[in-house]
Amino acid sequence: MASMVEYKGLKAGYRCGYCDSEEGKASCGMWAHSMTVQDYQDLIDRGWRRSGKYVYKPVMNQTCCPQYTIRCRPLQFQPSKSHKKVLKKMLKFLAKGEISKGNCEDEPMEPTVEDAVSSDFGLINKLDIHCDLKTLNDDLKKSLESEEKKKAKREESNEITHSQDMEEKLGSGEPSCSVKVHTAPQPGRGADLSKPPCRKAKEIRKERKRLKLMQQNPAGEREGFQAQCQPSSLLPPKTKSNEPKSLEDLIFESLPENASHKLEVRVVRSSPPSSQFKATFQESYQVYKRYQMVVHRDPPDKPTVSQFTRFLCSSPLETENSPNGPDCGYGSFHQQYWLDGKIIAVGVIDILPYCVSSVYLYYDPDYSFLSLGVYSALREIAFTRQLHEKTPQLSYYYMGFYIHSCPKMKYKGQYRPSDLLCPETYVWVPIEQCLPSLEKSKYCRFNQDPEAVDEGRSKEPDRLQVFYKKAIMPYGVYKQQQRDPSEAAAVLQYARLVGQACSERMLLFRN
């Protein structure tokens, strides 16, 4: 089934929830009656985002707080020190019921120096390996030179002692066998005892081989060196390399049988609603209501059932199942966190062809001490990795918008490695390369190639598909029936924002 959208155009001069500007926000939007997961995947890769069935795109060079699409690369993700603290806090609570004291803010603090270092552990390990190899080579050479000097001294000492013994024996008249008395070598004749003795070719070959093996296998150079210098019976047993724990190791660490609490995460389809979703709807809504009232200070009459349904349950995404896709299929879901038989948090997510897209999170404020915002993000990253095992192309975790000018939204940049979407060419750029520019200006073009353009731009607008008077037609036919210049401007603006591919697949409803 094709996507069906109704373009609403530009909306500017309305209140911004990030900086509290009364007239600073600007965006373009459309109502999605239905949408395929592939179309939505392509749209979010062009800076669009959905809220319920309304799909919008900020006008980046006009809005007061530019919102850059951000994605994390879960396959390379390593939890930072602050992330590990949150996971350990959850494990302690589940195992012993311990409630950590101190900061219970849901959003993580700005990254510390330790966090930055731990995220680059791979590079640090490589540097350590090269340093160890150089040190080991130097130590080996010094050791060999020292042994040669000692050997030379011992031989020289033995020769002198032996010579003295012979002299004593000869002087005392004792009989002796044929005795060779060493005299100082003449230049050009024989070995010079003042220098180390010549080494056998076999020993030299062994040393060269040992050095070559060490260079080929730098990670195990210490073990290799010890193995060749010590008898096998004296070697200590090999221990497992000190690798950092994976995200899954930290999340799914085994709990004692008498654990104080039990946490279960369930993924239920929200649109169309599954039987599990319907059965837990009221309980989930009550958690949402409390969250909005306590965390966002909404009045009791604002978070209604209809608002909850429209905002977090309704979705334009069509259900799709593929033999090579996730077992749960593609579409919109609620990831429910059950603690001891009750819902304490819900993560609203979309599962798309190339990513898991985070929509929203709400939780019971009584459990804010567990930092559920951070914990749920880490669980969603782990969930993406799990889906990737069966569906290799599904390998990204989209976190919504990154707003550098809003301190509350900068925490998303801590889940690394991550990329920001260039608002002009729609290519992904590592966030580290974007931050210096964002420090200077709210709005930035991240693509440094001045010649680069939007490769997916609308090049043939006449091929755009229009649904008009219950008929599907290309825009080239539709425009011949129109006389209003503003209609042409609106359609061409829509085509420019959604790109050529989506404009040819999606049906633009016009009346």
UniProtKB/TrEMBL annotation:
Keyword terms: Acyltransferase, Transferase, Ubl conjugation pathway
Residue ranges occupied by any N-end rule aminoacyl transferase C-terminal domain in the UniProt entry: 283-422
EC code: 2.3.2.8
GO cellular component term of the entry, any: cytoplasm
SUPFAM superfamilies according to UniProt: Acyl-CoA N-acyltransferases (Nat)
Domain named N-end aminoacyl transferase N-terminal: residues: 15-85
Enzyme class at the top of the EC tree: transferase
Protein function: Involved in the post-translational conjugation of arginine to the N-terminal aspartate or glutamate of a protein. This arginylation is required for degradation of the protein via the ubiquitin pathway.
PANTHER family: ARGININE-TRNA-PROTEIN TRANSFERASE 1 (PTHR21367), ARGINYL-TRNA--PROTEIN TRANSFERASE 1 (PTHR21367:SF1)
Descriptive protein name: Arginyl-tRNA--protein transferase 1
Organism per entry: Bos indicus x Bos taurus (Hybrid cattle)
